[in-house]
Structure formats: C-alpha cells, structure tokens
Automatic annotation (TrEMBL), chain A:
Gene3D superfamilies: Calcium-transporting ATPase, cytoplasmic domain N, Calcium-transporting ATPase, cytoplasmic transduction domain A, HAD superfamily/HAD-like. Part of the high-affinity ATP-driven potassium transport (or Kdp) system, which catalyzes the hydrolysis of ATP coupled with the electrogenic transport of potassium into the cytoplasm. This subunit is responsible for energy coupling to the transport system and for the release of the potassium ions to the cytoplasm. Pfam families: E1-E2_ATPase, Hydrolase. Keywords: ATP-binding, Cell membrane, Ion transport, Magnesium, Membrane, Metal-binding, Nucleotide-binding, Phosphoprotein, Potassium, Potassium transport, Translocase, Transmembrane, Transmembrane helix, Transport. This is Potassium-transporting ATPase ATP-binding subunit. Residues 110-207 form the P-type ATPase A domain. The active site is at 306 (4-aspartylphosphate intermediate). It comes from Flavobacterium rhamnosiphilum. The chain crosses the membrane at residues 36-58, 64-84, 218-239, 251-273, 613-633, 653-676. Its main location: membrane. Its EC number is 7.2.2.6. GO terms for cellular component: plasma membrane. Mg(2+) binds at residues 515, 519.
TrEMBL record, chain B:
One of its GO terms (molecular function) is P-type potassium transmembrane transporter activity. It comes from Flavobacterium rhamnosiphilum. The gene is kdpA. NCBIfam families: kdpA (TIGR00680). It is found in: Cell membrane. This is Potassium-transporting ATPase potassium-binding subunit. The keyword Ion transport applies.
Length: 677, 573
C-alpha cells in the first residue's frame, strides 16, 4: 500500500551516518543520560589510564597488550551501544526525510486581507494565513479548506494513487502539505505555524531532539540502574575480600567483571528499542504525537469502531424484494426501480442493480418530477408524467402516508419489516399512490476478514465496540455477524463520549478512531485517539495519533506495535540479566584461581586461562549488542495467545536462552582466544 | 538413616498440613470475622485497648501504620536498653549476673526489638531473670509487629482504591493475643513435659556420677523457648541455644521446636490466600518458597549424612555422618534440616554449631539468609517476598507487552524505585559490613577501643573459614536471623555496634518499603483483569519470581560465597 517503506534493515548510507554518530555519542554529556552505559564509559576511561600507567612502568597490572585489548573491547561495547541508538535514529530519520521531501519549499499564493494575491514561499506562511491552490499546484502546507472542493492526489503521503475529494465544511476538509491538487480550486487556511505540523513534530521525536522517556522506560531505567548499583557494591567489596584471601585482582579484571555483570545488553539497546517503536508506527503510516501514545496503545482494553466504513463496506445493498399481498412481484419491482432510477445514492443504485439492467431499460422516467429525500419526509421518489406518485422510505414514514390517505398498512408487510430488521437489514417500504406495494430489504455487507481480526483482538484482551446509528435490532445482528463484543446503537456523538468515560471509570483504557469535528471531544477523552488524516483539523488536534492512510482498522496494528515495544524491552532485560550466570562462572574462578587453586572446580566451562576467560567474557558481552540490534529494531514477535502463554514462551526463549547462550558463546570465544595466547 | 529421613519428612509435612487451618484462622482474625475464641479474647483485648486509650476501629493509612509501628518500637528499644544496662542492681537476679556494657546492651536491645536475637552474650551469665522476662516480652511483640505489618499489606492488596488499611494496634494486639500467645502456651507445655525448666530460682547444684559438684543454670525457660520459636525469634535462654540439653531435651522437643518455628511463616502464606480469596495465588507463593527451601535442604542433609571427606581420608568411618558440633540425640539429618529451617525462616535458633557444618551446608545456610524470602520470619517473610513479586511483575509485565499490573494496580516508576532500593539494601549491608571487617582482618589492624588487640584476633579460624565467620555474622544480622556461626569473637564494640546498625537498617527499611508500595498501590485506580492481563496465580509466574530471586538475591553473593564456603568445599574435596 505504501511505497516509502524500506524493507532492508541496514542501508549503507544509514550505516555510515550511524557509525559517525557512534563516536559523537561518546561525549560524556550525552552518555550520562544512560546510567548503565555511562558506568561502562567510566570503566573504559580507567582502563585507558591503566594502559598509560603500564607504558610509564607500572608493574603489577599485567602486560600492556592484555590491558590494551580489554580497553579496546570496552570501547567497542560503548560504540556498539551507540551504534544501536544511532542506526535506529538514522532509520527513523530516513523515513521522516522521505516524508519531509514532500514539504520542501513550494511557491504559495497567499490571499491578503484586502483580497489581493501575493506570491510567497511556503515557509513564510503563518498560522491563520489563507492561500489558494488550483489544479496542478502542490499544496504549500497543512491546512483546512474554507472554500471550494477539489480532487487531490495524496500518494506522496499515503502511497495510495487513487485521488481523493476534499471539500470545505464537513469532515473531509483537511489538506496536507506536499499533496497535489488535480482539479478545481480551493481556498485553504493554514493551521500550523511553520515547523509545527504533525509531521515536523514526528520528525523531531524520531530524531531524538524532543524524545522524552516514556513512564515504562523510566521505570525500567530505574531498575537497570539498581542492577548496576548492586554490581558496583559486589565489585567494590570484592577488593577487601580478595585482600583478605591474599588474592590480588588486577584493575582490568575488576572492570571486566563489573562491565560483564551490569545489564549492558539492555542498557545499550534501550533507546534504540524506543525509537524503533515509533519508527515502526511511522512505517505503518501513523504519526504519533509522543512515544507514550504508542506504549499506551499496547495497554488498550476497549476499542471503539464506527460501523460504516470500518466493519461494513460503506453502503447498504438491496438484497430482496418482498411484494405486499395482492401485488405481483413484477409490478412491485417495477415500482421499486422507478422510484430509484433518478436516485444516485448507493442504496438507490443497488436497487436498480438487484432488479437487473433489463428491467431498468424498459422503464422511463422522462418528464417525471423527482422528489428528493429530506429529513422531514424521510422518503424519496418520483411523480411520473401520468401523475403516478411512487415513494420509498422508512417503514414508519410510509405507514403514515398510507394511513393518512385512508389506506391500510398490510399486516404481512409489518411482519416482514420486523423480520428484516431482526436480521440486521434495513427495510425500505415502497408506496404507489399512497398504497403499500411491498418492502425492499437492504443489507449491510461486512468486510471480509473482520471476524478474524476481532478474534485476534479478543485474544489480546481487547474488547471491541461497534458504534452505529442503526436501531438496536439491526445493530445487534451486525455486531454478532461481525464478531464484535458490544455495540452502541442509535449513537449520538455524546453517546461515544459517555461510553468512553464509563469504561475509563472502570479502569479501562479506551482507543477510538474518528474523523469528524463531532468526534473531537471523544478523541480527546480516549486514551488513544487516532484521527484520520482526511479528517477535520479539530479531530486531528484532539487525537494523539494521525493515520495517514485513513484506514479504520489501523488501530489493530498500532496496538501490536505498542505491545511489541514493551515486550522487546522486557525480553531483552531478562536476556541481559540471565547472561550474568555464565559470566560469573567465567570470571569469578579466573579472579582467584592463582591464589586459590581449588577454585578451578568453579571453572565449569574449562576455559583456557584466567586471561582468556576474562577476555572471552567481555568479548561476548560486547558482541551480543550488535547481534541483538536487528531484534531491537524489528521488535519481538507478538502473538495473541494470552499473557501466561506469552510469558512462558518468552521465558523459554529469552530467559532460558539467556542462561545457556553465553555458556556456549564464551566457550567458543575462549577456544579462539586461546589460539592467540 | 531412613528413620532419620522419615523423621525430617514427617515434621515438614505435619507443619504444612496444620498450617492450612491455622492460615484460615489468621485470615479470619485480620478480616475481623467471628471466631470460636471470641468470647475469651474479646474482653482481654477490650481491656488492653481501654487502658492504652486506643481506638481499634480507627482506619489508618500506610503512613499512620508506619508511624505507630516505629514509635512503639522506639519505646521498647529504650526500655530494653535501660533494663540491660542496670540489670545487675535490679530485682529478679538470683545468680547476681552483672549489668551489660553499653555496646552489648545496645546490640542486645536492638537485636531483640528487631526480631533477630543475635545474642553476643550467654543467657546463663549475661542476663538477669528480669531481663529474660523483658526479652521474652520483646519476642512476642517483635513477632506481632511483623505480623501486623504483613496484615496491612494484605489489606492493601485486597482493597480497591482506598487509603483506609485497618488499624495497626488492632492487627498487632490480635496477632499477639490470638495467635502468638495460644500457640506459645501449647509449645511451652509440651516442652515442660520434656524436662525444660520453668522456675524463678537461681542455679542448682548437682553432684555428677564422678562425684564432681556442678552448678546448673535454670530459670523461666519453657515459656521463653516457646515464643522464641513461635515468633521466629531464635533468642536462646541459655548460651548454647537449642543445642542445650535443658533448652531442647529430646528428639520430640526438637520436633516440637521445629514445628513451632515453621508454623506461622507457613500459615501466613495460606492466610493470604484465604484473606484475598485467591487461594491459588497463595499456593503459587508457597510452591516457590518450598522449591527454594528444598533446594537448600537437600544438599545440606546429604552433605551432613555423608560426613567429612577429610576425616574419611584419615581412614575413619563415619557411620552417623558428620557429627562435629552436633547433638547425638538429634543426628545429622534433622540437624541439617533444622539448620536450613532456622536460616530460611529468620528464627536463628540453633541445635548444632553452624561453624562445624560441612562447607556445602554452610553455603546453604548463608544462601538461605541471603535470599531471606523463602518462608521468612513472622510476617516479614512475606514482606520480603512481596518485593520480589513486585520486581517479577514488572519484568514479566513488560515481557507480555502490557504495562505491569499486580492485582489490578499499575506498577510504575515509584514502586519500582522502592522495590529496587529494598532489593539492593540486603546485599549492600551484608557485603559492605563483611568488606569492612575483612579490610581490618586483611591488614590485621590494631582496633583500639573497638576490639582488644588486632583485628585477626576476632577470628577463630584462619583462611576461608575465617572469612565465612565474618560473612555469616553480617548475613545473619542483615537477615534479622540471629543465628551465629560461633567461633567469631563478637562481644566487643566493633561487632556489637556495626551489627547493631545493620540490624536496625535491615529490619525497618524492608518493612517501610513494602508498606509504602502496598499503600501506594492500594490508592491507585483498580483495573479489572482482561485476557491480556498477566495472571499472578500461575506456575509460570512462580517460575518468574523464582528466577528473579535466584538472580538478584543469590547471584550478588556469588563472589563472596566463592571465597568463603565454596573455596573451603573445593579445598576439602
């Protein structure tokens, strides 16, 4: 659907940028934000000092080469962690850049307050300015149409080539900078100061300039800092312990033990995971206003969906003709078609379609007077040349007409009407000259694959609610057919709002999607409000995400992205900490084996020598970071199999895996390292 | 040997079976439900509340609970310190035992207030009967305080969005009168019939078969020893604690004392299940604790039954296993079991000298106290475990892709911060204390006021075993356990004061932490469960908690254990 997705994880230009950034990020001021990696940086600096000291003749710290190698590996650990963050940023930036290309400097024709038109550059447009666009123009910046209607090519943003119609008033009045007007002329009011559009905000978020840590990220950082602190205590107190045991420990060994024990794997990848989460949202063509919104999406309990366009194909279709008693099927169809020939609503067209083109061709409405649908009469139809008055409409309206004219409303039709409603259909009653002819059944068509999607959501623990203007009977039928958990029938805008508030009162998190101005309050009230890009400015302001594709089912994807984000953090934390077991068994015997030979018994990996053991452990600790970068960027797979099952699966893969992998990894590295010693 | 193992297993099983109905009873007490014993206890409690001017129906928030808890403890501490300091010139001192030195009185007062009972003195010569009586009082109330704190956390876990968490004094008094007192009475009577003395008379003189005249200390011991175990205190009446023939005369009394220390920690877990009406949750907790306990007990019992390889190499058969430091009337199996029971639970009473345990057993005893969350002490055991639950919920919540929730409350940065702090505290106190002592010992520093002579003088053994003696003392203090590795010269200002400080911090901070977390969570919005919510009453969550405990609590001590008992084990092998 979208063309601006790059599927390869690493592109050479991004990698180059990221490599440069890896060094720039060594700056302690930047490093300080990540407590785990900051302590590694301190350790690296100390190792550098040790190397210098050896060059100047220090004796008791082992060979220069060994110390220098430890220094290099620690430096590599830092660079790997920086690279992870930088590559995530670079990918996000590339994604943002491709969007930004659409909003480079374009000429704009501003309408001044005196009505004159002035040619200026798009960057000079301020909030509240008005400009005009004609066929062939690029729209200068985000805004709302205040006059006119136009077809617009939005493929630059959505990748969707079919043009869309945008017009003033109503819910489809928004235009996006960089899209192209294909026909007609519109007057647009600018809705944002330059540099403050949603896209600009998103780009800033991805680029890290305004990225704020999300609540979960803060809590996790605290936990990781605590782990780091425990190991500071372990390593510092080890010094007097070793002194007592007459087992001198070199600085290199101390720092290696420390760096291996603290959770560098997750510490190094943490910010990359967060950035990658927003990047994934952007790839799904969703602009988020904050990282928190993506995270919250993973927690959603209730999802409000509009029926029309989301659950069902936009329009109802005629599926059956039921003539009244005493009226022939043929006559009834004739009346139905006559009443619909001039009706260009989708329902009207579908009636003609159902009757068949042959029937329609035989009939003519030349010279007839058309009666449009109005909210008062709630019927539409024609008065033919010969004076025949044919109407179709809602059953109560038709009934009124019939009864007022002194005719009866046939019982079989009344029964049929109830039967149709209870099947989720909409009955349309046709009357000719105030006599009931029969009833047409209109049915909603549920989009394919919806049931599976709702099942998936249910397994994720998300309750789906259908919002519709239909009567409760119809709503219930469609809700059941589509597989949603609940519905709001005959919904008024405030009903949505009340439903959301009610669910929130019970502690649930609610998401909804909307586009109209009357959706805005509910979008603001919802914990995750996704506004469609085609929607009104008010809706976009109120929500905390904007979907560029205007795809109502996008929320499902967003929820999965949110869950993936948390899961990736959790699993890599578990992996990182489980690694410690093997590292302990590599380093602790290496520290003391010279002084206490009996501790060889703890060297269960049978590593070659104390030096090779320490080097292998730090090397493993360093290279596991780049190995896990792809996982951090892609995210851990989410499967809706229930929380306990996911926990079991992830504990097996990342917990048990985290326990076993380093034993194998360190042993293999040791075998290689031993070759050089 | 089979008989010995049968004895161990049956004591363990009987304790579990009896803990379930007791747990139901405890849950009723904390829920203020009617019990059969109401007619007896209602008037007593009414009287206590009346004379102390307490309104037991007044609801408190977590901060008020904490304030009440800390203030009563402070009063007891000063009272106890004063009595010990002047016991020599106070009544009920038939043996004319002297007053305590200030540093010993400081250490003793703290260690009894905090339910640790480190005892750097010997009961026979170190305290008067008045002091013993007051220490006995402290053994009741310190256990009651722990249980009252746990009861508040229970309430916080049950309530939805409130800061009204019951009344501290109500929980506390009822824990003492309705749980600790009746159980202690039963145990005391059982001990009496086995020969434990209960008298206010001073030393008795007997003439042995060899014709020597020997003075035998006695006193109001049976009552003291009952609460020592029921309240998981462990403070012995006599110096040798439960290895003393009058304190623990027979195999049966040994079984009773074992049962007595296991029963309340076991029942508190079941009580939680009954109280929350989430019995499966309490079974998961109990399961995790039991797995941890068995992983410590089994290697210990095996290594004790196998005997000492060094002795074996000398060609001496050890048909009864490793008997050094053990009582013949108990044998190695039940002694090994006891040594883990007493360290896993914060009792700290000993029926053998842990200094003489095999290195594997020594490691397991240390690990039991380092983890300090399998069963654990009266009330506080669950509080320690609660911290690990919070951490496990947080990590596993992330792992399933949802903001972590525990019983419908979101775990956020503040709770994680407190839990992480408490989790760090334990290794911090143990390792930094041991580091300090090792530093002096490594340099053989002259200690001046702190210790007469050079630092290595406080060690009974050189090398790894000496290191273990120091590590054990701080571990026992930080776990509020109170068992001693013995051998260490600990009655001096250095050990009295440093362990005293460790005792204080390691008692009250780990109570404040869980109370604060529980109080904060209780105040939060309640979120009903959905299919996406992680359930905490499942085996897989139990596995997660166990992993968190094993990695945080056990791994931080790996280097220390390697230099102590593990080095000894590999050297001996």
């Amino acid at each position: 659907m979208t063309k601006n997705k790059s599927n390869s994880l690493f592109e050479s230009k991004q990698v180059k940028d990221a490599l440069v950034q890896s060094f720039v990020k060594l700056n302690p001021k930047i490093m300080f934000k990540n407590p785990v990696m900051f302590t590694v940086e301190i350790g690296t600096a100390i190792m550098f000092a040790v190397c210098i000291a050896i060059l100047f003749g220090a004796q008791d710290q082992g060979s220069f080469i060994y110390n220098f190698i430890v220094f290099l590996i620690l430096l590599a650990t830092l660079l790997f962690a920086n690279f992870a963050e930088a590559i995530a940023e670079a990918r996000g930036k590339a994604q943002a850049d491709s969007l930004r290309k659409t909003r480079e400097e374009t000429p704009a024709r501003q309408v001044l307050s005196n009505g004159e038109i002035k040619n200026i550059s798009s960057s000079e447009l301020k909030k509240g300015d008005v400009f005009i666009c004609e066929a062939g123009d690029l729209i200068a910046t985000d805004g709302e149409i205040i006059e006119g209607l136009a077809t617009i090519d939005e493929s630059a943003i959505t990748g969707e080539s079919a043009p869309v119609i945008r017009e003033s008033g109503g819910d489809k009045s928004s235009v996006t900078g960089g899209t192209k007007v294909l026909s007609d002329k519109i007057k647009v009011i600018v809705t944002n100061e330059p540099g403050e559009s949603f896209l600009d905000k998103m780009i800033a978020l991805v680029e890290g300039a305004s990225r704020q840590k999300t609540p979960n990220e803060i809590a996790l950082t605290i936990l990781l800092a605590a782990f780091t602190l425990i190991f500071v205590i372990v390593c510092v107190t080890l010094k007097p312990f070793a002194d007592y045991a007459n087992a001198p420990i070199t600085i290199a060994a101390f720092i290696s033990l420390f760096v291996c024990l603290i959770p560098t794997t997750i510490g190094g990848l943490l910010s990359a995971i967060g950035i990658a989460g927003m990047d994934r949202a952007l790839r799904a063509n969703v602009i988020t206003k904050s990282g928190k919104a993506v995270e919250t999406a993973g927690d959603i309990d209730v999802l409000l969906l509009d029926k029309t366009g989301t659950i069902t194909i936009g329009n109802r279709k005629a599926t059956n003709f039921y003539p009244a008693k005493g009226i022939s099927q043929e006559d009834f169809i004739k009346s139905a078609v006559l009443s619909s020939l001039a009706d260009d609503t989708p329902e009207g067209k579908s009636i003609v379609e159902l009757a068949g083109i042959e029937v329609a061709q035989k009939l003519s409405i030349e010279g007839a007077t058309l009666i449009k649908f109005t909210a008062e009469t709630r019927t539409s139809g024609v008065v033919l040349k010969d004076g025949t008055n044919i109407r179709k409409g809602a059953q109560d309206a038709a009934k009124n007409i019939a009864l007022q004219a002194g005719n009866i409303f046939p019982e079989d039709i009344a029964e049929r009407v109830i039967a149709i409603s209870s099947k989720g259909g909409t009955p349309l009653v046709v009357i000719k000259n105030n006599e009931v002819q029969g009833v047409i059944e209109l049915q909603d068509i549920i989009k394919t694959g919806m049931k599976e999607r709702f099942d998936r959501l249910r397994k994720m623990g998300v309750k789906t609610v259908m919002v519709t203007g239909d009567n409760p009977l119809t709503a219930k039928f469609i809700a059941e057919a589509a597989g949603v958990d609940d519905f709001i029938a005959e919904a008024k805008p405030e009903d949505k709002m009340n439903y959301i508030k009610n669910e929130q009162q019970n502690g649930k998190l609610v998401a909804m999607m909307g586009d109209g101005t009357n959706d805005a309050p509910a979008l603001a009230q919802a914990d995750v409000g996704v506004a469609m890009n085609s929607g009104t400015q008010a809706a976009k302001e109120a929500g905390n995400m904007v979907d560029l594709d205007n795809d109502p089912t996008k929320l499902i994807e967003i929820i999965e992205i949110g869950k993936q984000l948390l899961m990736t953090r959790g699993t890599l934390t578990t992996f990182s900490i489980a690694n410690d077991v093997a590292k302990y068994f590599a380093i602790v015997p290496a520290l003391f084996i010279t002084a206490i030979p009996a501790l060889e018994g703890l060297n269960i990996m049978r590593l070659h020598s104390p030096e090779s053991a320490i080097l292998s452990a730090v090397i493993f600790n360093a290279i596991i970071i780049p190995i896990l970068i792809p996982l951090a960027l892609r995210g851990v797979d989410y499967k809706p199999i229930g929380a306990s099952a996911i926990l079991k699966r992830n504990l097996l893969i990342y917990g048990l895996g985290g326990l076993i992998v380093p034993f194998i990894g360190i042993k293999l590295i040791d075998l290689i390292v031993a070759l050089f010693m | 040997m089979n008989t010995e193992l049968f004895g161990v297993i049956s004591i363990f099983i009987v304790s579990i079976v009896l803990a379930i109905p007791l747990g139901r009873y405890i849950a009723k007490i904390y829920s203020n439900d009617k019990t059969l014993l109401d007619p007896i206890f209602n008037p007593i409690e009414k009287f206590i509340f009346k004379i102390s001017g307490i309104n037991a129906t007044e609801e408190m928030n977590w901060k008020q609970h904490l304030k009440a808890l800390l203030s009563v403890n402070m009063v007891w501490f000063f009272l106890c310190f004063f009595i010990l300091l002047f016991q020599g010139s106070m009544p009920l001192n038939p043996d004319n035992n002297p007053s305590m030195s200030p540093d010993l009185a400081f250490n003793t007062a703290i260690s009894f207030v905090v339910n640790c009972n480190l005892q750097h003195y010997s009961g026979e010569s170190g305290v008067s009967y008045l002091s013993q009586m007051f220490l006995m009082f402290l053994q009741f109330v310190s256990a009651g305080v722990g249980m009252a704190a746990a009861a508040m956390v229970f309430a916080a876990m049950r309530e939805r969005t409130t800061d009204k968490l019951g009344n501290f004094y109500n929980y506390f008094i009822k824990s003492c009168t309705r749980i600790l007192l009746p159980l202690s009475a039963v145990v005391a009577v059982a001990l009496l019939f086995n020969g434990t003395p209960m008298t206010f008379e001073g030393k008795d003189a007997i003439t042995t078969l060899q014709g020597d005249s020997v003075e035998v200390s006695r006193g109001p011991a049976a009552a003291f020893i009952a609460i020592k175990h029921i309240g998981t205190n462990g403070g012995g009446f006599f110096g040798a604690n439960s290895a003393h023939p009058l304190e623990n005369p027979t195999y049966f009394s040994n079984a009773v004392e074992l049962w007595a220390q296991l029963i309340i920690p076991f029942s508190m877990i079941f009580a939680l299940g009954f109280y929350l009406k989430k019995r499966k949750f309490s079974y998961v907790i109990f399961g995790v604790m039991t797995v941890g306990f068995l992983l410590l007990v089994i290697p210990t019992v095996i290594s004790e039954l196998n005997g000492n390889p060094a002795i074996e190499r000398m060609g001496i058969t050890q048909a009864t296993g490793a008997m050094e430091g053990k009582e013949v009337r108990f044998g190695p199996a039940v002694t090994g079991f006891w040594s883990i029971a007493t360290t896993v639970i914060s009792t700290g009473s000993v029926n053998s000298m842990h200094d003489s345990s095999m290195p594997v057993s020594g490691s397991m005893e240390l690990l039991a106290m380092m983890v300090n969350a399998f069963y654990g002490g009266c009330g506080v055991g669950f509080l320690n475990f609660y911290i690990f639950i919070i951490l496990a919920v947080f990590i596993s919540g992330l792992m399933v892709g949802r903001t972590p929730e525990f019983l419908g409350k979101k775990i956020e940065a503040r709770e994680v911060k407190i839990a992480a702090f408490i989790a760090i505290l334990h290794p911090l106190l143990i390792l930094s204390g041991t580091a300090l002592a090792s530093y002096f010992a490594a340099n053989d520093t002259a200690m001046g006021y702190w210790f007469s002579g050079n630092a290595t003088g406080w060690l009974n053994n050189p090398g790894h075993h000496g290191f273990t003696e120091m590590l054990y003392e701080y571990t026992s203090s930080a776990a509020n356990n109170g068992s001693g590795f013995e051998g260490l010269g600990d009655n001096n200002p250095f050990w009295n004061i440093t362990t005293g400080i460790v005792l204080l911090l390691s008692r009250f901070l780990p109570i404040i932490g869980p109370l604060a977390i529980a109080g904060l969570l209780a105040n939060k919005k309640y979120i009903p469960e959905s299919a996406g919510t992680l359930k905490t009453d499942t085996t897989i969550f139990g596995v997660m908690v166990f992993a968190v405990i094993a990695i945080i609590a056990a791994l931080s001590f790996f280097p220390a254990l390697a230099l102590g008992p593990l080095a000894e084990y590999f050297t001996l092998k």
